[in-house]
Amino acid sequence: MLVAQQAALHTLSMSTSKSKESTGSKATWILDRFIHHLSTGCAWTVVFIPALVYYIHRCIHSHKFVSSSNSSTSFVLFKAYTPVSSHISIVPPFDAKVVSSTLVYLSKQGMKLQDASGNLVHPIAYNLEVAIGHEPFECLGTNQTQECSALPLTLMSPSWMHDPDLGRGYLLYSDVADNRIWRWEVGGGPITIGRTLHMDRSGCRRRDGTCVNNFQGSMAIVSERNSQKDAKAPLVVFERGERRIVRIEVDGARTPILTHLKDGHKPQAVTSMVYTSFGDLVLVDNPSIFGATMTTSSMDPGVYMMEHAYRIAAITAKQSKLIARDSEYMANMTVRTLFTCNPKKPILMSPYGLALSKVGLHRQVYVSDSSIHHPVIATLSIPFDNEDSSDDDSSDVQSSPTPLPVVQPKIVFDARLHESTIVQACRPRDVNGQFLPTNLQPSISLRGMTVDQQGNLWVAMAGAINAVLVLREAPVHHSNTEETAVRIVGCLSTFDHIPTGVELGDDGYLYITTSSAIHGGALLRLRVKAKRDTVPNFMQ
Q: CATH: 2.120.10.30, 2.40.50.140, 1.10.1200.10, 3.90.550.10. Which one for 93-527?
């Protein structure tokens, strides 16, 4: 009995001792777990968790936790984006049902108005907002007054890129004045990645100040279409300082695709580029948007095409550096003239934007006219060439290509005929849908465009009234005939942001690049239902 009692006391004593040791070694245990984390590859949590706590702390104290009218929660973890517009004007005969089904998210709350033209002013569920703002640019020209006044662009050419490795896409856009290409990415997590620098010195690589007229930035950019349907598409860039179009290879080499147009003239101001289903590159070259300071030739603005541009073989980074020093280098590709502007027959005066139509295997393009005296949109058919040029890649640009049928643009939309409707539908409004005061006279300039899966045409419109027009081809009935015409579906004001281009992303947003010589450019975005058009791939 005594032995049993002694054994029980010994057990209790040992248990108490272990408890005290456990309490006293808690700090040691935490240190052991920390070392274990480091040894098992979880060291990132040591940085991430404190950083997340610090970020949330700063958000609370800097009031970045904001109320959201579009969220069911009382606060959100994202910073407050500056709203630009909260209403869309819907033009009859289209109605809210049509717009809400395929275009934008309409709000079920708020006041709906009807203006003097019968347009329905409807609140949208998600505001048009400033995704990122840019500082006002500094003029880089030698004759600052003349050249800065001739430079109407800061941000332009938004282009959606898909990365199969990431399983998602991102937006690229040109910062013309700053000689850079920026990347905007929502990302796959709950927090937007935002803006990062994609390419520096995008329009001129030279550091000796020998770029043409000291114009350095890139202008039009586009994702190349190639025969490898599942591969990551390279970026194609118009280098304004070098006056050429290049393809950016994986190793950073710049393969020249177009160095000369016709009669030895080099491209001067490529404002838009698109790839067809067959790998042809269609582009607009319009030196008139820069006035007389950019050009030293008498070339008129025009639309050009390079057949099978995707077949141009890549060069190495070493070759790319050698070619960059050779101003007389000519890319081995046939360039065809689809249309040049004729002042005597002004079908188009100042072409700017391009967008592939869904008509006939995407062998038709919309062309916008940026002239305030001729704000029209025309269609231009891309002719087929029965001759296979697969063995003709060695012919240089000076050779005489097989003549193609003469193509004349057909005007399908004239903004002057709809001026009163546009003024009523596109004027800026306050949060209650009421007109904001403006004393400016109407002037319309049509710029960049994009087409969605339903065939709707989204057009950047600048001038005294800045907005994005939504157009749709619809049948028009006459007494004995029926023809197709482009009609206004709706209009979204961008207030004092001057639109230069629009693009639909696979992330559910419409992106708008804007410019302003005083306030700097900005990237706007709007959550939409419209889907980006998928161009079929017929390349072999």
A: 2.120.10.30
